[in-house]
Amino acid sequence: MCVIEKGPIIETRRLTLRTPRIDDAARIGEFCGDYAIAKMTTRMPWPYSRADADGFVARCQAQDRRHDTTFVIELEDEGVVGVMGFFTPADGHLEVGYWIGRPYWGRGVATEATRGALAWARSDWRKKVVVAGHFADNPASGQVLINAGFLYTGVVEHKASAARGESVPTRMMVWLA
Ligand SMILES: CC(C)(COP(=O)(O)OP(=O)(O)OC[C@H]1O[C@@H](n2cnc3c(N)ncnc32)[C@H](O)[C@@H]1OP(=O)(O)O)[C@@H](O)C(=O)NCCC(=O)NCCS
To answer: Domains along the chain?
Structure first.
């Protein structure tokens, strides 16, 4: 029998975070076609094709949710506006990353989603430590992480950005449950 695992759902004042579905791929592809998003992430390719979006959704649905969990972020009355993902690198701590579609920037969506996701990670997923890094030229993401309770570790790593095709100084932060 094929069991479809729906995955966790997180609800905040304006947002619902849920497992990506294949019918989300078109909207994900539209937002991620924006270089302003891709260049601030480590792994997102650019240009970003519909096949990239389909592959992303398929990988999210196949995740081992003990270690990795990715959500689309739905804003009330708007539908999907972004993505938030927790992943565990082979050699490191649980890490969080996110992006919000450009039309929705500056409305507190990333902050609300990050706070909601961390509350869920602590209470339901039983995680105690989450790390995050933002490129040094992305202070808005640093502010989101500060507002959600992360602290700077003082460590600056050089992380590859697929979209930029080079490594970028990355300010590392940590959140403790
Ligand atoms: C960074 C990003 C997630 C922010 O999303 P958002 O929903 O607009 O964020 P919010 O509205 O919740 O919060 C943005 C915060 O950054 C602040 N900010 C915006 N531009 C800033 C800048 N140039 N310098 C410092 N702070 C800035 C805002 O004032 C706000 O902080 P405040 O609530 O204390 O006033 C979004 O721009 C994005 O997806 N960017 C591309 C992908 C990306 O950067 N992902 C994160 C990788 S680490």
So the answer is: 10-176 (3.40.630.30)
Is the CB of 81 within 6 Å of ligand 1?
no
Residue 119's H or E segment, with its range, is helix 109-123
User: What are 95's strand-pairing partners?
Assistant: 87, 131
| E strand segments, 50-128 | 69-75, 79-87, 95-100
- Work out the number of other CB atoms within 10 angstroms of the CB of residue 131: 17
Give residue-wise pLDDT tens across range 100-145. 999 999 999 999 999 999 999 999 999 999 999 999 999 999 999 9
AA identity, residue 60: C
Q: Which of 102, 141, 157 to mutate to test the pocket of ligand 1 (most atoms within 8 A of CB)?
A: 141
Report the percentage of the chain scoring pLDDT > 70. Answer: 97
Number of C-beta neighbours around residue 98 at 10 A: 22
Output the CA angle 173-160-63, nearest 5 degrees.
Answer: 75
